Every structure is written in C-alpha cells, then in structure tokens.
Fold this sequence. Notes:
The structure holds two protein chains of two kinds.
Chain A: H1 4-26, E1 38-39, E2 59-60, E3 70-74, H2 88-92, E4 98-104, E5 110-120, H3 129-133, E6 139-141, E7 157-158, H4 160-163, E8 164-166, H5 167-173, H6 175-198, H7 200-205, H8 227-250
Parallel strand pairs in A: 1-2, 3-8
Antiparallel strand pairs in A: 3-6, 4-5, 5-7
Chain B: E1 28-32, E2 35-38, H1 43-53, E3 58-66, E4 71-79, E5 82-93, E6 100-102, H2 111-122, E7 125-127, H3 174-177, H4 197-205, E8 222-227, E9 239-245, E10 248-255, H5 263-269, H6 275-280, H7 287-302, H8 308-339, H9 342-362, E11 371-372, E12 375-376, H10 384-407, H11 411-417, H12 425-430, H13 436-439, H14 447-450, H15 471-495, E13 516-524, E14 527-535, E15 543-547, H16 549-553, H17 557-561, H18 566-576, H19 580-584
Parallel strand pairs in B: 2-5, 6-7
Antiparallel strand pairs in B: 1-2, 3-4, 4-5, 8-9, 9-10, 11-12, 13-14, 14-15
Amino acid sequence: MFGTGVIKGLGVTIKEFVATYVDDVKKIPSRYAGGRQEIDQSDVDEQRGLFTIQYPEERRKLPERFRYIPMLIYEAESGEDRCTACGICAKVCPPQCIWIVRAKDETGKPMTKPSEFYIDTTICMNCGLCAEFCPFDAIKMNHDYEIAAFERMPNLVFDLKELSVPTTYYARIRPTDWAIEEEVRKAKEAEKAAREAERAAKAQAAGADAPAQGTGDAPVTRGRVSPEEIERRKAEAAAKRAARAAADSQE
Amino acid sequence: MSTIAEPMTQTEVMESGLPFSDVVPGAVLEASDKGLVVSPDGLVALATYLRDHEGYDYLSMVTSVDWPTHFEVVYYLYGVAKPMSALVLKVRLSDKQAPVLPSVTSIWPGAGLQEREVYDMMGIRFEGHPNLRRILLWEGFDGYPLRKDYKESYYEEDAKPFKSRHPDGSHLWAEDRVPWRDNVTYPVGWDPDLWTQPQVQYRRLMGVDEIGSTTGDLKTERMLINMGPQHPSTHGVFRMVAALEGETIVALEPEIGYLHRCHEKIGERNSYIMNIPFTDRLDYITSMSNNLGYVLAVEKLMGLTVPERADYIRVIMAEFTRIVSHLIAIGFLFNDLGAYFTPALYGLRERELILDLFESASGSRMMCNYMRFGGVSGDLPEGWIERARDLVWNRLPRVMESFEKLLTGNEIFLARCKGIGVLSAADAIATSMAGPMLRASGVPYDVRRAEPYSIYDRFEFDVITRPEGDVWARFIVRMLEIYESLRILKQALDGLPAGPIMPEGKKQYQVRVPAGEAYSRIEGAKGELGFYVVSDGKPNPYRYHVRAPTFINLTSLERITLGHKIADAVVILGAVDIILGEVDR
C-alpha cells in the first residue's frame, strides 16, 4: 500500500521522540539535580533518544587530550618558567602565530628564557604541534575554549602573562600526561642532581630571582586584562600604526 | 630514492625501444619509472591510443609543476578494469611565458575542470578546451598563483619558519607588516568598476539568447538563474548557473572558488609536517582520511615503514571517518529533499559519538591532525577500544536498522530519487567520477581493492555497486558502504596488535625528505583522494597538489542535471555530496 513506508518512518521518529524523555526520566539521580555541570557523554549504549547539552549552563566533559589555544607552564612552587626560548614551537607552528623574544642579561648575552612571548590566537589553528615538539614540556594545549573578545586588536594576542599557567593547573586538566611526564622528569632530575652535587659551589652563585607569578590552582583567568591595560595597548597599537603610516608617507 | 631527472625539453624523436613508439611514433620522448615524457604534438594521438587499445580509460589526475626551465603537465591514468596499473604521462613545455598544450577533454571529459584549474593556477592554455576560463579565481585576476615567481597577499618569505618569529619576534599584525598591503593588482587596462561580463558570458555559453522556444503550445522563454552562492541547499558557498526552459534545466554550470584559500601555495611555503593540520581543512568532515592520504605520500618519498599498530589505528580511524561522512551525506540528502532536519540530526547524533572517539584520541573533533610520518601522534587512550567496540558491535548496527526503517521504504523519497540524475557507467568513467558516484553507476572500482594502501589487503570487505546510476543508487551505495566499514572495523579492532605507534628514534619536527615525487591515493569517503608531492630535498615541498574527489565529481554535474527540474538539481547535488572546503581548496 502506498504510504506504508512513510508511516513506518514516522514510527521511528515517534520512538526517538519518546526515548528522549525516557532517557531523562530513567537517569537517577537526574542530571538536573544539584545544579548543572559537566556532562559525560561517554556511556554510549544507554542513550536511545536525542541528547542535548544545554550550554552554557551545562558543559561537556572534555577529554584530557582536548586542545585549544596553547598555554605556557611555570613551576607552581618556584614560579619559574619552563620555557627556555629555544624557539622550536615557533619553528614548527604551521600558521606561524608564535612570536618569541629571547631575554638578554645586562651584558647583552642571550639567556634561556623568553622576555616576550606572543601567540596570535586569531591565527592559531589549534593543531597542537607546538606542544607535541616542545622538548621541555613548557608549552601545552589549554582546555579553556571561551576566549571570545569584543576586539581583535589587541585582546586576542596573548602575551606571556596571559599564556602562563601553573603546573598545578596542567596536572588538573591532563592528569595522565602529567603523571607520565613527572616520572620522566624525576628520573632526569635525579640524574642531574648527582651531577650537580659535584658543582655545588658554582650553582650557589646563580641565585634565584625568578618572578613570582600567581599561585595555586585557582581557575586560570586568562584574557581578563583590565580595561586600563586594554586602553593602554590600544593606544600603543594606534601609535605603531601612525608611525608606520608616517614612515610610508615619507617614502 | 633517485634525484629528479634532468629536464628534456627538445622535441627530437629518439630511437625505438621507447614504449608505444611503434603505434604512435614520436609521441614518447623519454621513459623512466616516473612516467613517460610525451611531446605536446603527440599527446592527443597517444592518449587516444591508450584509451582505446590499452584500457587506460580513467584519467585520475591532471596537474602541473613549475620547474625553473619549463612547465610540466602531469597526467595520471588508470584503467578501471586494470587493477594495480598506473601510467604517468608528462608533457614539458619550455615556453615560460605563454605555454600552450592540446586539451585531452575530447578523450577524457574528466579533464575538463582539472585543465581549467591548471590554466587558472599555472597559466597553461589548453587548445581545444570547450570552456577554458578561470575556475577558482575570478575573471580579471592578475597572475598565475602557483608559478614560483608569484607572491601572494601578505607574502613574507618563501618558506616557513619565518625568521621574524624567533629569537627576536615582537608581534606584528600582518596588515602592518606587508609593505604593499593587500597586494591586489589588476591587469593593465582592466577596470573592476566597469566590468559587467559574467552575465553576458553565461547567456552566450548557455544559448539563452539564441534559442527561444518555438515548439509546443506554450511559448516559453529561456531564463538564466543563479542558485547560490548563498543558498541553503548548495552545501556551502557554491553557485549553479542554470538556464531554464520553464522549470526544466537546459544548461548548467558549476561556479566555484568562493572558499579558495591557496591551499597548494600555502603547502609549498610550509614544511612537510606543517601540511598535516592544513589537510584537515580540506574536506573538514573527513580529516582523518585526509591526514592519511598526505602522510602516505610523504612516507612513500621517505621510504618509511609504519609500525603494525599504527597501521591498524589508521585504518580504524579512516573507516570511522567514512561512516561519519556517509551519515552526513545521507542525512543532508534528505534535508535537500524537504524532509527537513530530522534524518540529518539522527545522522549527526551518531557522528557526534564517533567524533567523541576522535577527540579523545587526537584532541580535536574535526581538525584531528592525528597522523604523523611513520605513525600516529598518540596512542589510543584508556577505555577507547571498549567505547569503539560498543559503537561498532552494538550501537551503529542498531541505528542503521532504524535508519533503514526511516528512509529506504519512504515512497516520497523513492519517487523523488529513482531515475533522477542518471549517469551511465561509461560516462562515469569518462568524467573521472570517483567513490560512491562511480560505484553507483555500476563500476566496481575502489582504490582499497584496486591498489591496496596501508593494510587494506588484509581485510575482507565487498565493493558495493549498483547498476542504476541514479540518486537512489548513490544513496544505497552509501548505506551499504557503512555496513562494509563496520565489517572492516570489526576485523581491525579484533586484530589490533600491541606495540609502538611511531618508528624508533626521536620525534622530529623537521623531516628529511629525499628529492623525488610521489602520488598516493586513498579511497576517501567521497572518492579517490590523491596527494601529489614533489620534493627537491629542501625542508618544504617543491610542489604539493591535492586531487580532490568532490571537485572532480562536479565534472558530470551538468550531464546528470540536464532535462530535470530545477528542484531535482538540488537533490542531484546533494547526492554528489560536495564539501566546499575540498572543492575550492
């Protein structure tokens, strides 16, 4: 009979429609109980109907390897940057969005740390190659995907301060990788300590005046630059452009 | 790997002993394992002979390389009835200013769009081409971008990494950095404000002005309409220019390039590894198989072998990708038919679950960037296999069953799809169709079977074909291919060995690729996806070309829409399953 196929098909949609509610009712405790938070979708076979995560009230539980914009890691205790300004991330970056200025001491000798570090998030393609090839585990991919801003310039160029996160934050969002890396690091450090003991006298001279940069595992508030700072940077960018235009007109 | 052969541009006839010299004398100038160098004058005769007597009926890829002394146009030929065969023809043109070459569209109509692309990008004219216009760029664009001396907008340096980034890299915006700003120039004497050509041109092309209708009781006028580039059922920024007589299509032309982003030019600036995330953005539904195609090409050049486990993981990912792509194709075909979003949403839901797997393995749902030269970027995380098994054994078969109930018996669907957009087997081969488009016309050609790559020779699966060649057949082929993918997945998940996922040695961000050239092709979800990589031993490829299946599948669009109603053109396009990210590159 003409139309049986259509009716059969509509049966499927009705089933889906009902199953969506059944899924909700069957779940104990309800996902709406106790405030909406992270929803884990990995239990595949339980769901029969449709499933909606009501962002931004609810959020998806992100897998550990989730990657968004890179972040720079500093040691939580000492406040020391892991980055040595070796530039491998800048060299491997496919859209070339990483900019590094290597720090110099008073005599002009380059040091193994960055004085400036920029990631242009308007260009970054979130590929994760920088994190993959960093030999010091200093650059990793962040999970914070809410970086929308009202202005591209200069809010979306992250500098050293905005990129920096403590090791504790990294350990929290990617525990598996953290555990593996810590093991390797401890083995290396034990080896290093043995060598260092021999040169203990020299080591004392190179004192610690590392900058203290925030502490604890408070959620990383990134890109939250004060309005004054934004104004200042805007003025700076405008000045740069004006200088550029002046230079152009002279030519 | 040997070095690139010294170019030979003179057209002297060499001694016999060269292939085909007895049947088409003087056509082949040089023969090596990299292909036959053919003289421009002998090309058409040789091509005709190869098609008619040697069985090379399938022109897979046409591209060109800009060498310092000459242009080289490269043709990759296969025979659909000849598995494991490939014939490479190369034509060298020493005229660097205005190179001209006879077109092979009369022999293989599948060359149509590809020759236009070569003309657009390299400035090589094809004599005898019926419609040699720019294709990805706009009429009036100055220059030929893939020539080595062309510098694109915001050009910085010839090759990445750029020196301005480290160790003294203070951030600069691109628009402040480039001295000539947006770098748009027009040809001499060409004024964009006065340019009104396209409509006139299309009217002429499609005979709108000449032919009025005289037959029949009803006096109709021909009308030219543009569908797109902003149209909900063109799957992106795609434009169909159609000439209509009443509601019937009498001529149609696809207009593309709105999403063109110099993928190949960027690929030449990039180092080898940088290209992997860029391939994600070609067909953004199937990023895993795009990765696979590209790394296979570079691995071919490097002579790398892949660990067993990595090979299995690659196949698992590629087959999941095929399921994702087919689910979307089917879902949106129904969307185009007017069933609105319901089937598409059901397809998308299953896709999300597969994307969850991709995300937990690679870190991203769509832009996976998962494959590396020699392996994959990370091993499967804990619990991954169990979730994959659950999907493959329990959930997806169940869902496919309800999909079949929902869709295959639907009378409205059958009425709209049966007999619509028919493409015969001979036409499908001639126009270089690939993937489900080819198999739905009754040609049992699948690269996984015809030229197994990776470890596809170990798996048991059937090549699905349907003889009808219409929209319905394309739908059924996709449905059945999902079952075949599940079959392969079951075997691969069962056989997945333990072991390393990358070859021994330190991770390298700058791989050494010996000089040479390689073409690797895989059976992507939408057809034969090929990557042509030419290396000159430097850290970045000398030439990087993508044989995009959906782009070439558009070659037959006019053929299969003629005589149908304009509403059917939407359905036919939906069944071709184009992804504009790949069409426009």
